Amino acid sequence: MKNTKTPLIGIPATPYENEGHTSHRVSEKYVKAVAELTGCAPVLIPAVGDLVSFNCLLEHLDGIMLTGGRPNVEPHHYGGTPSIEGTPHCPERDATTLPLLRNAVKTGVPIFAICLGIQELNVALGGTLHQRTQELEGKRDHRMDRTIPVDERFEDKHPIDIQPGGLFEDLFGGAHRVMVNSLHAQSIDQPGDGVFVEAISDDGVIEAVSVPDAPALTFGVQWHPEHPNIRGNDVNGRLFKAFHAAVREHHAQRSGSEGTDSKAA
Question: Which helix (H) or strand (E) holds 197?
């Protein structure tokens, strides 16, 4: 029988408080990027921390997209120094995404991690972060420029150099340098276990990583490829195309296994 089920992509949410009421939110640009570019159904995962494990979802998901967001990963997760006063954190999101990521990598669920997501992926695999990239010697200010219109903030800002021998060299057809946007303060310091550095900015910031030995496609980028105005350009479009293919492959394998089990029953 032909499989008619729609592949599912999990998107962890972030709690936001407004006038004493907390909601779990995912920006529409991520939800629509999943729906429009992969044809898959977005499944929002609330950040409830230790209250419940979402590992049970992994057998039903065909991919995970980790979004950007205002919070920084709490530094105790990677042995970092305490954050400066006023740094936004979200312990509930950390407690939701970090274990979910570790188990997703182990069980072969494809992962596409964006901005905060690449930082979470790296920490989940034992890596460390720079908390304030703009204060490092020789580094530019990579943070969002809030003085310009929103759409302009997502335009390309600087080049990145693709490292040889990795996933991105293949994805970008052998290109050695491409342009990306820049809207972050944290960045990767030491890569985690099994993490391969795919791209580095012209001022030495790690901009993309992959996990070559993961059972399924697992990669992350420090820039934002999901904005409607730029997600279809050659660079960002190739990222979504690769994720789409991995998700569809996982869905086909999962559906085949389900079909075999049902026949056996």
Answer: strand 196-201
